């Protein structure tokens, strides 16, 4: 399963003009004084000495580790780590960093070794797919506009037509993001066209997209696809989970963000959130609470993913640092 | 479905005035002295009244007037009328002077209102005067919930009378549970069960004088015959967040599913398996750092809390049936 396998192509240091809207406490990159954040995630067969080698690599280049998470599950012989460090890009150029970690990756036969320097690397490019329900889509767009969602939205694809006067269309036009309306039917899910539209993206976000993507599509696309399910999986899979929940008399409802796999609503879970409901809730307030949870849960999952916090764990699970 | 209906009907059989019952109640009033009708001391006692009837204008007015006319002072009230359902629910907590408003009179007054409004349910409870609910606890091998209930009962946090503990798991005289029960004079009945013989007749005999049953991780499914014969409410704890992971070993199912939240559900037992109306649910976060052992530990912790909370709500008359599969929990 191809989770986070794609490494954003290393665009050289010449792309300094990507520095807009960086919420960093450091000033704009001035070679003489500034430190830049770097993130490195590492996933390899377990052995003695990995942490020592990784931290030494960073230290030897003048990097200072600010946070580290190491996780070695019992009896599984795998090693996961995520290090957050600051460094001087003059003393440790980006290309050199890539080489250094590649060497370690080869030494330890890593399943995954990804380094990301948010200030230098291009933002992740995503396409957002939505249907008629647009609360998640709108929330993502606003988060993107406010700089809370550090991605580049290449386009929005939907099987629902939106007129030129709608909030979504006006917003997208204002920000120069194309909206592609692809009418789908049971026979034709337009997957070929979707594939073409998303071929230059790093991952996809299904923001309450109601069509099921086929195994073919997932294999052809090859990158990660994150979905929001408006229910607490594995409860209430399938359609209208709010109504299912309402009728079943549960006292808690939730939302689940997860990776999309061939099986419906069954891919590895990234994040789950709940809220209390009671007899005082009707279907409308169930739906409202649910929508609120979906927005938060999806944003959180995307943010964790972009920060390299999400790693595959066994067949159906995730490590989320 | 007769949730609490059995409680109601069993109520009518119980003697109302029991001034002799000096069970220890945790009230903020000083220790309860049986009031002497001729005494001029007046002190206030808590009463709880729940009411469920077809909706109409004026119910709250009549209920509150009834209480006020007897000198009762309403301390809190919950009223709930769901949209388009034409049914009315209320729960009032009030203080009153049992000299000015004797228990039997209270029963009559509310009965009158109950008839006037054609109520499906009208239950009063005066914890200081009425006998505690009698319960039997049924458990299997897992005893964390059972022990938690026993300790809660001992500490007075669980305001019930435990008539007996029934189990399909043998416990020796040195076990913590047996020693505890012996110390408190509560019988322990070991009933061997098999898939064919669930010993339900014996269980029925043992529990016939109880007000409700608690299944504290009892692993046998009670048949519909048993449920009909017993006739009263049964509260179960399910170690999972229903409807997820119904059936056995929900902790392992949860671990395998990679969920980030696990939970427990307390609910009434009906014929569908793990499907009765839910009373309470609780969750806790889990992550990659949890293994099966910590999943189980977190789950057991949730089960204890969730079951206690449900029993307490039930005893405080907070739980009412709502439509077919749900509950109102005030």
Automatic annotation (TrEMBL), chain A:
It comes from the Eukaryota. Residues 39-122 form the ACT domain. One of its GO terms (molecular function) is hydrolase activity. One of its GO terms (biological process) is one-carbon metabolic process. The keyword Hydrolase applies. Keywords: Hydrolase, One-carbon metabolism. The keyword Hydrolase applies. PROSITE patterns: ACT. PANTHER family: FORMYLTETRAHYDROFOLATE DEFORMYLASE, FORMYLTETRAHYDROFOLATE DEFORMYLASE 2, MITOCHONDRIAL. This is ACT domain-containing protein. It comes from Flemingia macrophylla.
TrEMBL record, chain B:
One of its GO terms (molecular function) is hydrolase activity. PROSITE patterns: ACT (PS51671). Pfam families: Formyl_trans_N. It comes from the Eukaryota. Keywords: Hydrolase, One-carbon metabolism. Coiled coil: none annotated. Residues 48-131 form the ACT domain. One of its GO terms (biological process) is one-carbon metabolic process. NCBIfam families: PRK06027.1 (NF004684). PANTHER family: FORMYLTETRAHYDROFOLATE DEFORMYLASE (PTHR42706), FORMYLTETRAHYDROFOLATE DEFORMYLASE 2, MITOCHONDRIAL (PTHR42706:SF1). This is ACT domain-containing protein. It comes from Flemingia macrophylla.
């Amino acid at each position: 399963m191809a989770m986070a396998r794609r490494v954003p192509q290393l665009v050289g240091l010449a792309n300094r003009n990507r520095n807009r809207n960086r919420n960093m406490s450091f000033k704009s990159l001035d070679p003489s004084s500034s430190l830049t954040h770097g993130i490195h995630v590492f996933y390899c067969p377990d052995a003695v000495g990995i942490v020592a080698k990784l931290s030494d690599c960073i230290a030897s280049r003048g990097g200072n580790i600010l946070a580290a998470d190491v996780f070695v599950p019992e009896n599984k012989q795998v090693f996961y780590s995520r290090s957050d460090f600051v460094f001087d890009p003059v003393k440790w150029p980006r290309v050199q960093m890539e080489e250094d970690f590649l060497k370690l990756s080869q030494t330890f036969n890593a399943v995954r070794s990804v380094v990301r320097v948010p200030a230098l690397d291009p933002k992740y490019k995503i396409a957002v797919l939505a249907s008629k329900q647009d609360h998640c889509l709108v929330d993502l767009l606003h988060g993107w506009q406010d700089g809370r969602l550090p991605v580049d939205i290449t386009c929005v694809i939907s099987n629902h037509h939106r007129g030129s006067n709608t909030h979504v269309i006006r917003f997208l036009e204002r920000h120069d993001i194309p909206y592609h309306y692809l009418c789908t039917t049971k026979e034709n899910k337009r997957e070929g066209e979707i594939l073409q539209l998303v071929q230059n993206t790093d991952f996809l976000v299904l923001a309450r997209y109601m069509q099921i993507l086929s195994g073919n599509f997932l294999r052809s696309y090859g990158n990660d696809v994150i979905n929001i399910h408006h229910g607490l999986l594995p409860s209430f899979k399938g359609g209208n989970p709010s109504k299912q929940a309402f009728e079943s008399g549960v006292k808690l409802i939730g939302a689940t963000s997860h990776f999309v796999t061939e099986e419906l609503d069954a891919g590895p879970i990234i994040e789950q959130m709940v809220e209390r409901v009671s007899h005082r809730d009707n279907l409308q307030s169930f739906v409202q609470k649910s929508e609120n949870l979906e927005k938060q849960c999806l944003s959180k999952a995307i943010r964790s993913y972009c920060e390299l916090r999400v790693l595959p764990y066994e067949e159906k699970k995730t490590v989320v640092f | 479905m007769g949730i609490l209906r059995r409680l109601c009907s069993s109520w009518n059989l119980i003697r109302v005035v029991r001034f002799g019952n000096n069970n220890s109640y945790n009230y903020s009033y000083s220790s309860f002295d049986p009031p002497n009708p001729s005494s001029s001391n007046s002190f206030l006692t808590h009463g709880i009244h729940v009411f469920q009837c077809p909706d109409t204008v004026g119910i709250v007015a009549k209920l509150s007037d009834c209480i006020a006319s007897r000198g009762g002072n309403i301390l809190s009230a919950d009223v709930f009328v769901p949209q388009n359902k034409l049914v009315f629910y209320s729960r009032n907590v009030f203080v009153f002077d049992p000299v000015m408003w004797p228990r039997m009179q209270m029963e009559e007054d509310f009965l009158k209102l109950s008839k006037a409004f054609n109520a499906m349910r009208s239950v009063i409870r005066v914890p200081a005067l009425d006998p505690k609910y009698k319960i039997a606890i049924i458990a299997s091998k897992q005893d964390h919930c059972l022990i938690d209930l026993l300790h809660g009962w001992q500490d007075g946090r669980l305001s019930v009378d435990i008539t007996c503990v029934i189990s399909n798991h043998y416990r020796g005289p040195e076990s913590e549970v047996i020693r505890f029960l012996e110390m408190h004079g509560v019988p322990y009945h070991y009933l061997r069960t098999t898939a064919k013989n669930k010993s339900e007749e014996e269980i029925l005999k043992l529990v016939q004088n109880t007000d409700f049953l608690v299944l504290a991780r009892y692993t046998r499914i009670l048949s519909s015959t048993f449920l009909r014969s017993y006739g009263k409410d049964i509260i179960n704890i399910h170690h999972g967040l229903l409807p997820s992971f119904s059936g056995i070993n929900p902790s392992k199912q949860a671990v395998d599913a990679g969920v980030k939240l696990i939970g427990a559900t307390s609910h009434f037992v009906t014929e569908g398996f793990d499907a009765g109306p839910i009373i309470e649910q609780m969750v806790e976060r889990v992550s990659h750092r949890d293994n099966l052992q910590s999943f189980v530990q977190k789950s057991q912790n949730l089960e204890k809390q969730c079951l206690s909370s449900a029993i307490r709500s039930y005893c405080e008359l907070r739980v009412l049936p709502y439509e077919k599969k749900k509950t109102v929990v005030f």
